[in-house]
Design a protein that fits this description.
Mean pLDDT: 91
CATH class of the largest domain: Alpha Beta
Number of helices: 12
Largest sheet: 8 strands, mixed
Structural class: alpha/beta
CATH superfamily of the largest domain: Spore Coat Polysaccharide Biosynthesis Protein SpsA, Chain A
CATH architecture of the largest domain: Alpha-Beta Complex
Oligomer: single chain
Strand content: 25-35%
Distance between the termini: 39 Å
Radius of gyration: 29 Å
Number of domains: 2
Helix content: 25-40%
């Protein structure tokens, strides 16, 4: 469709994203989030020109983003207003002299918009005054007040709105002028107020908006071809310690009264040692001996929580989260049952997860082997991680 222009709205500050840099200028591959948006629109054959609406304080960031673009379709930016709606209207007014027939309005934080989606929205404008991409809601919806469910809301005929949202230029400009103080979250809402037809085309899960740091991590992984969102990792750990003289066992972070103690270089917490190995194994980072060798005197008598916390740091660095853990203690004595809930609570506290994600149980070897003879205690642990 001739005379179609793209307006990319990038004047926001992104409070939920955090950090000092506005999210639209965060690096993504060899460019920025906003840069990826721009490059897709200027490359589309049906887009006659691209105008960005930016914050007046971001001129240097914007210039750095577009310095490699020589495409004449990229128009100089204009400054946004105090609200999104003011920013959009300012952008529309800035291209009115170009007499566009239609306009696509796009969030500058959606870098994975596709050529196909742009084409679908443009095509829909042949039979409608407005068109937006939408994704059908598949989750059950609950209406809540004060963190309490009041009722279930039907998801029938509900869609999640995306951008770019396309409109006939004169109509959307007039709507923004008339409703300048509404501060709607999307532009199609203005047409709804006026009773003007807006069509919905199939949106894309890939066309997600970067709002939080988790979204940014997903975007980086996707751009690098490593989109492991939804990937589950599993790690397995095993440890054993012999008994010696003592009056308590350190197990899963608590002291269990017993007529013996476990012997080890650190505090010999067999449960946390197995857990550490499982955590490290799930992310391919070796084992506890690699990171805390018994030959290193720094770890002599050390609290094993230190080992678990280091493994947790490595997991966090790899953008993974613990889904659940399962620890089995193998011994004839002491009885684990009376202390199981304390152990679960302590492990959950160390890892910063809900206690419902921690399972601890015990078994015997029916008198067989070293644990059966009461010579020591063993533990095995299984960990599941979710890669963000």
């Amino acid at each position: 469709m001739a005379g179609c222009y793209a307006l990319i709205v990038a004047a926001g500050r992104g409070q939920r994203f955090g950090g000092e840099m506005p999210k639209q200028y965060a690096p993504l591959g060899d460019s920025t989030i906003l840069g990826k948006c721009i490059s897709t629109f200027i490359a589309h054959p049906d887009i006659g020109g691209v105008r960005c609406v930016i914050n007046k304080d971001d001129v240097n960031l914007y210039d750095a983003t577009v310095k490699s673009f020589s495409e004449p379709k990229l128009l100089p930016p204009v400054f946004g207003g105090e609200t999104r709606q003011q920013s959009v209207l300012g952008g529309l007014e800035s291209i009115s002299s170009l007499s566009p027939d239609t306009v696509l309005i796009h969030d500058g934080a959606r870098p994975f918009v596709s050529d196909e989606l742009i084409s679908d929205v443009i095509s829909a404008l042949e039979n409608a005054s407005g068109a937006i991409p939408g994704l059908a809601v598949v989750d059950t919806l609950k209406e809540c007040f004060d963190d309490t469910i009041k009722k279930t809301v039907s998801r029938n005929n509900l869609f999640r709105a995306q951008t770019p949202q396309g409109f006939h230029f004169n109509e959307i400009t007039k709507a923004h002028r008339n409703f300048i103080n509404n501060n709607e979250t999307d532009d199609a809402s203005l047409f709804e107020e006026l009773g003007i037809k807006v069509s919905v085309v199939n949106g894309s899960e890939e066309n997600f908006k970067i709002t939080t740091q988790d979204d940014y991590i997903r975007a980086q992984n996707k751009f690098a071809g490593n989109d492991v969102r939804g990937e589950t990792r599993t790690g397995f750990g095993f440890d054993v310690h012999r008994f010696g003289a003592g009056s308590a066992l350190r197990l899963c972070g608590i002291d269990v009264p017993f007529n013996k103690a476990a012997i080890g270089h650190s505090d010999a917490d067999v449960g946390l040692h197995a857990l550490t190995d499982a955590l490290l194994g799930a992310i391919g980072e070796g084992d506890i001996g690699t990171h805390f060798p018994p030959s290193d005197q720094r770890w002599k008598g050390s609290n094993s929580e230190v080992f678990v916390l280091r493994a947790l740091e490595l997991i966090t660095e790899k953008n993974a989260k613990i889904t659940n853990i399962d620890i089995t203690l193998v011994c004839e004595a002491p009885k684990i049952g009376p202390y199981r809930d304390q152990m679960r609570a302590r492990v959950a506290s160390i890892l910063g997860i809900d206690v419902s994600r921690v399972s601890i149980k015990a078994t015997t070897t029916e008198g067989l082997g070293a644990t059966g003879r009461g010579e020591g205690i063993a533990a095995q642990a299984v960990v599941c991680l979710f890669m963000a």
